[in-house]
Amino acid sequence: MSNRGKRLISIAVSLVILGLIYWRIPFQDLLAVLRHSHFGWLMVGLGMVVPITLITALRLRWLMPPHQPLPFWEANRLILAACVLNMVLPSKAGDIAKAYFMRDRGHLSTSLALSLVVFEKACDLLSLLLWCLFGLWLYPQKDAFFWLMTVCILAGLTGGLLLLGSTRFANLFFALGQQLAPQKIKVKFKQLQVAWGEMHAYFWRDRRQLLRVTGISVFIWLLHLLQIWLFILALNAWVPFLTSLALSPLAILAGLLPLTFAGVGTRDAALVFLYAPYLDAATAAALGLLCTSRYFLPAIGGLPFLEGYLRAAKWKPNQEI
Questions:
Q1: Which residues have a Cβ under 8 Å from the Cβ of 161 and sit 6 or more positions away?
Q2: At 48, which helix (H) or strand (E)?
Q3: Which of 27, 92, 115, 172 is surrounded by the most beta carbons within 10 Å?
Q4: CA-CA distances (angstroms) from residue 169 to 119, 155, 173?
Q5: Where are the alpha helices (DSSP H) in 139-280?
Q6: CB atoms within 10 A of CB 19
Q7: For the whole model, what pTM was predicted?
Q8: Residues in contact with 102: Cβ distance below 8 Å, sequence separation at least 6, in sequence order
Q9: Is the pLDDT of residue 275 over 90?
Q10: Interval 99-140: pLDDT, tens
Q11: Angle at 75 between CA 80 and CA 123, to 5 degrees
Q12: What's the rounded Cα separation, in Å, for the pair 120 and 130?
């Protein structure tokens, strides 16, 4: 199936899930929640996009080799251009395309650019899992579902740390993946294994840089989760912040599943389900719309830069990453 066909299916799945959500929630109730939202908290929440983007660009600069510095403005443009592609590619694959942009702008070799982006995304995912585990550990109403999620998140975090910290474990993982994966995916597993090995060699030689990048990644995700909590306040609702630390990462992880368009639908359904003890369905659905704006606003900001990167990289959106 072509990438265009896959995107059409993902859009259709998103529309079906949203249709099911809004079929059960009167649309006028959703509009009422948005109409009576707190303007001040809403602006603060939406405005969090700016510092999050700037700090993410700072991290990208820190990832670069000292002899190949990346200008701060260029790092911001790369981040915003990747946000546009993340709206149409599954599982934030637009961030992987960022490696090609960095290569063709003359900053890095292909393998090193891919290594840096893979490490950046690994730090993002592990930081999200870390905050999720922290919130779930303190979550007061753990039933069988939440205990299962706690165990799964702990297993994922442990496996991710082993992949980052142990070359032997990483090679075993990629070798197993190449054996089990379909033929078309085996080549990508091999490419990722090479990039992962180079990433290990690059980052573990400088422990100070490693700690600095991982520390700022944890902080960036704290800002993301704080932004979602501010959206809850903007909707004139209340959820304890530590509780939101457990619930919102689970919804974000649901949105990363390559089933829907930019996570729309799966993320909304997860928010309605997870926040049911604290928010009525209309408020949770409004929270889903605000969470989508977290991806939509940076994508709008990246549109002026995307065409230039695509032209320089000679890469088209329907091309394989």
A1: 126
A2: none
A3: 115
A4: 16, 14, 6
A5: 144-165, 167-180, 183-203, 207-234, 241-256, 266-274
A6: 11
A7: 0.88
A8: 70, 78, 108, 113, 116, 117
A9: yes
A10: 777 776 656 777 778 778 888 888 999 999 999 999 999 888
A11: 85
A12: 15
